TrEMBL record:
Pathway per the UniProt entry: Purine metabolism; IMP biosynthesis via de novo pathway; 5-amino-1-(5-phospho-D-ribosyl)imidazole-4-carboxamide from 5-amino-1-(5-phospho-D-ribosyl)imidazole-4-carboxylate: step 1/2
Native source organism of the sequence: Remersonia thermophila
Stored InterPro entries: SAICAR_synt/ADE2_N, SAICAR_synth, SAICAR_synthetase_CS
Pfam families, sorted: SAICAR_synt
Its EC number(s): 6.3.2.6
Keyword Electron transport carried by entry: no
Alphabetic keyword roster: ATP-binding, Ligase, Nucleotide-binding, Purine biosynthesis
CDD domains: SAICAR_synt_Sc
Protein name: Phosphoribosylaminoimidazole-succinocarboxamide synthase
UniProt keyword Ligase, yes or no: yes
Length: 314
């Protein structure tokens, strides 16, 4: 495994079509259908700001974990369509250089290029974060009436679909009601997105719980295949970047939970008055602890180590 921490992706053989907070997307030569090389860097963002340094192996953890989830969810959610085709770029000779091939190993996947709906399909099984803040003020969650008497981090009677807007780089996502999301994605697709988001959450949460992890909430993205008019699950899936994972053994209602994600980083930023500030560099102990959290969750969910999974790719 390469020990490099990649905060930028050195790939010039393919046209780069966009760069998000964490991923760079490259166009692949036309085959049957348009495809993309979806490359995950080791960049990390917190409070919508990208940190100066990265987390070693994060890009590979997120990529390999997402690939596993596409496989699991395909089996558990009837009729689910998703964008994942295979790990790495297509094996076309000369497509990328040997150095690029090594760099892309484990951190890239070939996916169908689709038209992403501009909403974040958030599903919550537990009440925490911005939903808890809203509930305490108005007893609503994303504008929806919620059961009375919920405690912090309580399990909701049923998982709920609580979308948000999908902000441009540098902006903040805004929580909206399912009705507002319907206006954005259109009547034709709104129900399908909600139904798939809930089904994927339930299937994923059940799978994770059997492995000692509670998925408190998560964000999915969906896209449209304009040729067939079908809704696809896209982006990363059920990773520590897109989800709040809690340890089932340590879970206790009525208090903040320690989560397996960017919690260490968020706590450090808040404690040092650096929340939301640009160009912040994480100290080595924050990097190491965060890396540890990502690795631990990978191991628990997949039952194997990243090294073992990567060795299968050779
Ligand atoms: P964050 O994940 O923190 O919200 P971001 O939205 O900037 O940040 P990245 O994960 O860095 O996202 O970049 C991935 C981008 O690729 C997103 O804009 C996502 O909507 C888009 N995307 C995901 N899957 C597909 C796909 N199959 N076709 C086209 N675009 C896709
Ligand atoms: Mg993203």
């Amino acid at each position: 495994m390469s020990a490099d921490i990649l905060t930028s992706i050195p790939l010039s053989s393919l046209p780069r079509i966009s760069q998000g907070k964490v991923r760079d997307l490259f166009a692949l030569p036309d085959g049957d259908k348009p495809t993309l090389l979806f490359v995950t860097s080791d960049r990390i963002s917190a409070y919508d700001v990208i940190l100066k340094n990265g987390i070693p192996t994060k890009g590979t953890i997120l990529t390999v974990l997402s690939a596993k989830w596409f496989e699991v969810l395909s089996q558990k959610v009837p009729g689910l369509k998703h964008h994942f085709l295979h790990l790495g770029p297509p094996k076309t000779p000369g497509l990328v250089t040997p150095e690029e091939q090594t760099m892309l190993r484990g951190r890239s996947m070939t996916v169908r290029r689709l038209k992403v709906f501009p909403v974040e399909a958030i599903v919550r099984g537990y009440i925490t974060g911005s939903a808890w803040a809203e509930y305490q003020k108005t007893q609503t969650i994303h504008g929806l009436p919620a059961p009375a008497g919920l405690d912090h981090c309580a399990r909701l009677p049923e998982p709920i679909y609580t979308p948000s807007t999908k902000a441009e780089l540098g902006d903040k996502d805004i929580n909206i009601s399912p009705e507002e999301a319907r206006k954005i994605v259109g009547d034709k697709y709104a129900d399908r997105i909600e139904q798939l988001a809930l089904a994927c959450y339930k299937a994923g949460a059940e799978y994770a719980e059997e492995r000692g992890i509670i998925i408190a909430d998560t964000k999915f993205e969906f896209a449209l295949d304009e040729e067939t008019d079908e809704v696809y699950l896209v982006d990363e899936v059920l990773t520590p970047d897109s989800s709040r994972f809690w340890s089932k053994a340590d879970y206790q209602v009525g208090r903040e939970q320690d989560s397996f994600d960017k919690q260490v980083l968020r706590n450090w930023l808040t404690a040092n008055g650096l929340k939301g500030k640009p160009d912040v560099e994480m100290p080595p102990e924050v990097v190491e602890k965060t890396k540890g959290r990502y690795s631990e969750v990978f191991q628990l969910l997949t039952g194997t180590s990243l090294e073992e999974e990567l060795s299968k790719l050779d």
